[in-house]
Amino acid sequence: MRLHDASVATRERALLEDGSDDVILHLQLSGARELQQSGRSATALPGGAVFSLNAEPSVIRLPSGADFVSISLPHAAISARANRIEDAAAIELSPNHPSVRLLSAYLAVVDRSRDADPALGQLMAGHLIDLAAHLADSALGHDRDEKRRLGAVRLAAVKADIDANLNSDVSASALGARHGVSDRYIHKLFAAEQTTVSHYVRGLRLERVRRRLGDPRYRTRTIAELVFEAGFGDISTFNRAYRQHFGETPSETRERAYLVPD
C-alpha cells in the first residue's frame, strides 16, 4: 500500500468491539511507521518491521508518505507457533535482521505467484505464519535455534518459489539469485532433507500434471500441453518418469478420473 501524505490511525477501546484479535505484521518499504501499544513505542524504518495487536488499543503514525505491506495473521495460528506473541507488539525489527530480509524476499515470491495454481495460496499462508512466528520469537530473544529455524523458513520460501515457477527457470542458480543466496546454499537446504533440487522439482512437476489430468478445468487440454506447461521439455522422458512414479500412464490417470460408475 502507498500513502502520499502523513496519517494517524488510532484503534481505541470502542473499536475493539469489532472482535478482531488478529496480529498485524507491518513491513515498511519506504518512510517510517511510529507505533504506540502495550506501553511501548517503536519506530519501523524503511526495510524494517513491527507487530501490532488488533485486540489492544494502539496509535500508528506515518510522519510522511510511505509504502508498506501489512499482513493480518489469525491470533490462534501465530500464537500456536510463537512463544508470547503479545509481548512482541511495538518492538521494531531492524532492516538488517536476516528474517526481515527473508520476509521481503518471500513477499516478492507471493506477488509473482498471484496467477499460479490456486492450491499454492494456502501453502503460502502457512509459510507467512511460520515466518511471522520466527520474527516474533527473534524480537523477544526466544529463538534459541535461529539458524536452523531460519533455514527451514528459507527452504519453505524456496519451495514455494519453485511451485510458482515450475514452467520457468527453477535451477539452483536462478533460485539463489532470486533469494539472495548462493546456489551452493540452495543445494545444502535440500540436502538437509535427503533430496536434491532436481528431484524435488521433478516430483512437483509430475504431481502438477497428475492433478490437472483429473481437474475438469483442464479436461479439454491435451496431455502434451499439460506436460510442457509443467516445465517438462521432453514427452518421452516425462512418460517414463510418470509411469515409474505413479505406476500408470497419464492416459490411464485421465481415463480413471472421468470413469462414470455403474
Defining traits:
Arc Repressor Mutant, subunit A; Jelly Rolls; four-stranded antiparallel sheet; 262 residues
- The CATH level-2 architecture of the domain at 1-94 is identified as Sandwich
> Per DSSP, what share of the residues sits in E-state strands of 2 or more residues?
15-25%
Helix content: 40-55%
CATH superfamily of the domain at 1-94: Jelly Rolls
If strands are numbered along the chain, what order do they take across the biggest sheet? 1-8-3-6
Rg, rounded, reads 22 Å
Query: Structural class, please?
Result: alpha+beta
| Total DSSP E strands | 8
Largest sheet: 4 strands, antiparallel
Assign the CATH topology of the domain at 1-94.
Jelly Rolls
* pLDDT < 50 stretches: none
Order of helices and strands: EEEEEEEEHHHHHHHHHH
CATH class descriptor name of the domain at 1-94: Mainly Beta
Average per-residue pLDDT, rounded, comes to 86
Continuous helix count: 10
Distance separating the two termini:
55 Å
* Silhouette: elongated
Ordered list of secondary-structure elements with their pairings:
Blueprint: E1 2-3, E2 7-11, E3 23-30, E4 33-37, E5 40-44, E6 49-53, E7 58-62, E8 66-73, H1 75-79, H2 98-112, H3 120-140, H4 146-164, H5 172-179, H6 183-191, H7 197-213, H8 223-229, H9 235-246, H10 250-257
Antiparallel strand pairs: 1-8, 2-7, 3-6, 3-8, 4-5, 4-7
Helix pairs in contact: 2-3, 2-4, 3-4, 5-6
